[in-house]
User: What shape does this take?
Amino acid sequence: MSEVIDSPESPQAPESDTKMEIDWVRCIPFYLLQISAVSVFFVDFTWMAVIMSILMFFPRMFGLTGFFHRYFAHRAYKTSRWFQFVGAVLGGAAIQRGALWWASHHRDHHLHSDTEKDIHSPKQTGFFYSHMGWFMTKENYNFKSDRIKDFTKYPELVFINKHDVLVPVLFFIFCYCVGHFWNGLFDIEDTSTWALTGWQLVAYSFCAGTVFLHHCTFCVNSLAHVWGTRPYKTTDTSRNNILIAFFTMGEGWHNNHHHFQSSARNGFRWYQIDATYMILKLLSLVGIVWDLKPVPKHVVHRTAQAEADQAQQEAENATAV
Ligand SMILES: [Zn+2]
Ligand SMILES: [Zn+2]
Assistant: This one.
């Protein structure tokens, strides 16, 4: 559970040399969850378990991308108080702590991208630390409440953020119950390929599905700053990566995002599939969300190639004169 510290200058804040110190004992539940992915080998395989795990993967991923990231961290669109709470719960089921903790750290990342102060920069502290070491530290267990005071005014968000174990527990029970009652509900034979059991769905969705979800998300902080293309000359190392974009529903267009952070859209071009934006667009059509921030045309076209072409044109013009 996270605690709120009042300011970055808080006396509780550790000195800089201890900032990277990993809290090995506190992270025991995290290791256990990672190891639990092998539980899929101890339950029966059915295609229904795989399908159900996928069906539970993408909504939880959207909880992170559509809410934790684009709403809570970047305020890229507006919505109602009840729907932002739905988002905090949905994102919480991805088991990456609470919305306020997640979004405040992400705001920090954009503020200090790839500088010494960046909390997860493969350039500064290496791949492992940017992938998962950073959130295992004592330092980053807390979050800076003044980074996210636009949302700390909602007690329900503060509550669910403080008790960040609550949603994962409910999700565990949900997985077990869906699997346990599935066959009886739809009159399916226990030996059918469409059959499920409670522990089977816990293994496939809560354990393996969550671990896969974790590493897809972590790759945005690590791999999307190392591997991919850089159409925009940002001051950081962010890259566009189609593979990460697929699994993270559009977050892999990370160079685009660092170039223009406030947009609800990360895939700037028509061929850069951004599933999160598509869902947000659909939700805006029915009025559940609104004021989606667009990407201005001049921003889309200000690529590194466009700048190089312009520089070359200017050089040619100068030579011609
Ligand atoms: Zn980044
Ligand atoms: Zn961001």
In short: The chain has one domain: 4-320. Residues 109, 113, 225, 238, 254, 258 surround zinc ion (ligand 1) (CB under 6 Å).
